[in-house]
Structures are given as structure tokens and as C-alpha cells.
UniProtKB/TrEMBL annotation:
A GO biological-process term: carnitine metabolic process
Superkingdom per UniProt: Bacteria
SMART domains: ETF
PANTHER family: ELECTRON TRANSFER FLAVOPROTEIN ALPHA, PROTEIN FIXB-RELATED
Cofactor: FAD
Family, similarity comment: Belongs to the ETF alpha-subunit/FixB family.
GO molecular function: electron transfer activity; flavin adenine dinucleotide binding
Protein name, per record: FixB protein
Pfam family, one: ETF_alpha
Residues reported in the UniProt entry to bind FAD: S228, R229, G260, I261, S262, G263, Q264, I265, Q266, H267, N281, D299, I300
Record text on cofactor binding: Binds 1 FAD per dimer.
């Protein structure tokens, strides 16, 4: 696979930056990272493989990620005609991708699961709710892609790596959203895409109170707790960041344990890269049993306490 002369990268979440830079290293001869933060953030980008850092200054609480799109667009336009910009697939990352697409007249693909450079820039992504994989060829001079998690293996940081840092003046957007106040979001912050073990709960959990039992089980297993879409978006029992599926989190853990989840394809697309899949469902004909390595047909409200008892023993 041929490489592009330069890849631009950015992540608004530090934990996602290693994967994005890894993609840049795999696809480009040099990697130029946009950084908002401190000098240690610049050093971190270099240690992961960035050859150039375009520094946009310290984080300012009154600015949102998309406010930097004009500054980034001007740098990209001034430095290369044909280029690729890679971003983490976060809410802010996708919002930034859309603004950059408009400002650079660039094609945008979200949640790419594969990028190929053999015949131009091509990106594959899930379509029709995970029932198919679509491939898009981006013909614009600048291509913008948000990467699905787990596609590229994060590199080991090497503090001896260095490069060139360039200061970039912040350019006020023509019409910015005014940030009046920031408040800490209720609930625990989690990045399920990085978890080694995940327990997912679905509508079969029965009640919100039963989440406490699932949480106890996840603690004993050393797992993070995730959920199906109805639990997060319909019942609102858990944070949106814990929703597993084609339009939620794409998992790649060692173990995925599904409790009371029917196994519709929209959910399973987010879990199929798990090394080992366990499931408990009272319906022996539930679709999830087509995907599991180990399955139990039973009531999770009986199985969960039994598992907890066994683990404590």
C-alpha cells in the first residue's frame, strides 16, 4: 500500500490519540498532529510518532472543539493540496469533521473500519444499521475521516522521539457557539472501547434496581458495564457513552458478557470483535446465541446472583 506524503491527525480525547497517530504512521510518510493543551501534550504527540505538531495553544474553557476548525482549515489549505485528516470518532470529533468538510470542500466519512490508498482514498464503514459494509471513495483534494476505535493498534510511547513544533494563531470562527458555563456531567466517565472486559445489559435486566446487581458482578469480574440502546436512550438508565452498537461504542475486549440482550445485528456489530462472547437470555431462540462462544438459557435475575456467589466463593 502506497503512503500519502502527509497525514493530519487530531483527537479531543487524549486516550484516543495513540490510535489516531498509529493510523497516521501506517498511512503517511509524516504525521502532523494538531494539539490543544500544554507542552506535555506536545511531547506526548511526538512520543507516539507525530513528526510535526501544530500547537493551537492552551485549552480555553469558553471554547468548544469545533471553534478550532477555521484555524486547522487554514493550516491544512496552506500546507498541502492533497491530504488526509484523521480524527477520533467522538461527538466533538465528528462535529469538527463536518465543519472542516464544509470549510475545505472536503469529503467526510465517519466511523471508518478500514482505509485503503491503492486507488485514491477509500474508506469502509458500516451501513444499514450494521447489515452491510459500504466503501466510499473520497475524490476531494482533502479527505476527512473519523476512525472507529480498535482499528489500529496504539503504539508504545517513546519519550526519545521528537519533531518540529509550530505555533498556530487561533482564528475566531465567523459564527461561534457561545460557551456560557461548563458543568461536570453526572455519572462516571468511561471509555468502553479501551476496556478488556465488558458486561452488557439489555431490556431483559427487568428494572433499574437490577443494574446494581449487574454492577456488583462487573466489579467482581474486573469489567466495565455497558448496555444496549434501549437502556441508554429509551429508559435512560445508563449514560449514552455506555451504549454498545453500530451507532454507539464499538468494542474489542477480551471478554464480552451479554445479560438479557436479544442480539439484534445493530448491537452485535459493536461486540463481534470481542475475543470471547458469553450470553445469558431466557429465550433459547434469541439471535445472540448465534454469535456466542458460551451461552446460558435462563433468567438473568437467577443467573446473576449465582455468578456473584460463585465468584465470591
Amino acid at each position: 500500500m502506497s503512503k500519502l506524503s502527509n497525514i493530519w491527525v487530531f483527537s479531543d480525547i487524549a486516550s484516543r490519540l495513540p490510535e489516531v497517530i498509529a493510523a497516521g504512521v501506517a498511512l503517511g510518510e509524516k504525521v502532523s498532529a494538531f494539539v490543544v493543551g500544554t507542552e506535555s501534550d506536545i511531547d506526548a504527540a511526538f512520543s507516539l510518532g507525530a513528526t510535526h505538531v501544530y500547537y493551537l495553544g492552551d485549552k480555553v474553557s469558553q471554547r468548544i472543539t469545533e471553534d478550532y476548525s477555521t484555524s486547522m482549515a487554514q493550516v491544512i489549505a496552506a500546507n498541502s493540496e492533497n491530504s488526509l485528516m484523521l480524527l477520533a470518532p467522538t461527538k466533538r470529533g465528528k462535529a469538527l469533521a463536518s465543519k472542516l468538510g464544509a470549510q475545505l470542500t472536503a469529503g467526510v466519512v465517519n466511523d471508518a473500519i478500514e482505509i485503503n490508498l491503492e486507488d485514491g482514498i477509500r474508506a469502509k464503514h458500516m451501513a444499514y444499521g450494521g447489515l452491510a459494509v459500504a466503501e466510499e471513495k473520497i475524490n476531494s483534494q482533502v479527505a476527512i475521516i473519523t476512525l472507529s476505535s480498535g482499528i489500529y493498534e496504539a503504539p508504545v510511547a517513546d519519550a526519545s522521539h521528537t519533531g518540529e513544533a509550530i505555533n498556530v494563531a487561533f482564528v475566531e470562527p465567523a459564527s461561534a457557539i457561545k460557551c456560557v458555563e461548563r458543568r461536570a456531567k453526572q455519572g462516571q466517565s468511561v471509555d468502553l472501547g479501551k476496556a478488556k472486559r465488558v458486561i452488557g445489559v439489555g431490556s431483559g435486566i427487568g428494572s433499574k434496581e437490577n443494574l446494581q446487581i449487574a454492577d456488583e458482578l462487573s466489579g467482581l469480574m474486573g469489567a466495565e458495564l455497558g448496555c444496549s440502546r434501549p437502556i441508554a436512550e429509551t429508559e435512560k438508565w445508563m449514560e449514552r457513552e455506555r451504549y454498545i452498537g453500530v451507532s454507539g461504542v464499538m468494542l474489542k475486549p477480551e471478554i464480552y458478557f451479554a445479560l438479557g440482550i436479544s442480539g439484534q445485528i445493530q448491537h452485535m456489530v459493536g461486540a463481534l470483535d470481542s475475543q470471547t462472547i458469553f450470553a445469558v437470555n431466557k429465550d433459547k431462540n434469541a439471535p445472540i446465541f448465534q454469535y456466542v462462544d458460551y451461552g446460558i438459557v435462563g433468567d438473568i435475575n437467577k443467573v446473576m446472583p449465582a455468578l456473584i456467589h460463585a465468584l465470591k466463593a
